[in-house]
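Q: Could you fold this chain for me?
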Amino acid sequence: MKLRNHLLLNVFLLLSVLVVLVPFIWMLTVSLSPSSDPFRRVAFLIPTSFSLEGYLQVFQQAPLARWFMNSVLLTSVLTAGQLMLGVLAAYAFARYRFRGRETLFFFVLCTMMIPPQAIMLPVYLVVNSFDWVNSYKGVIIPHIASAYAIFVLRQFFMAIPRELEEASRVDGCHSVQTLYHIYLRASVPTLFGVGLIQFVNNWNDYYWPFLILNDEMKMTLTVAIVQFRNDSYIEWVPTMAAATLSVLPVIGIYVLAQRYFTESSLQSGIK
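A: Sure. Below is the predicted structure, expressed as structure tokens.
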């Protein structure tokens, strides 16, 4: 019985890995296929011949460097803002007692459960009323606060012994100094992990930048993927080549900082 359960578990895990990997492998193989027949296969995922013309088409016909810099700029500014507001909000929720604290934190958690697409239209109307459409402000400001960052950092701050904070008060530190000397210095690995997760999420964000940005030179890498299509036809090879190039930085970050992704996820389970 134990061996059978172990075997079933391994089969389930293998199928889960395949579900995740097959779309990525399909994207990669289509990007390496000739444009004349991108879907001809000798097997399910192996093309009959390989070609780099899709990547050459992306580099020659698209401002790839500009899109890349746009992604780096927007993602970096948005991630830094989410961390800064996350630290301040988490500190308040973890260490200050005020009327409505639990209710307010409950509403923060609720924002994690609402699909972004459900509130996209009202948020867009607000952004449009400020005349921020087709601007970086319109992409950044509506998402400058992250419920996930607030939640994880609050959990970590609550695990720090309150005696350390009281000792800093005795030494004459005010709230900002206590936050810096006690909480921030103790949470550097957690901040790094949360920052990486937020960076990857912001980098991969497609719908909101696609809705707000309509100037080709302001687009990000993920939005620019749709440039190789028109109303009736999709150029699959350059589209998949652009998609592959857009995920390479994320894969590189994950490979280099895999430990911090795991630690950050585990921190969410700390009291």
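A (continued): The chain is about 70% helix and 0% strand.
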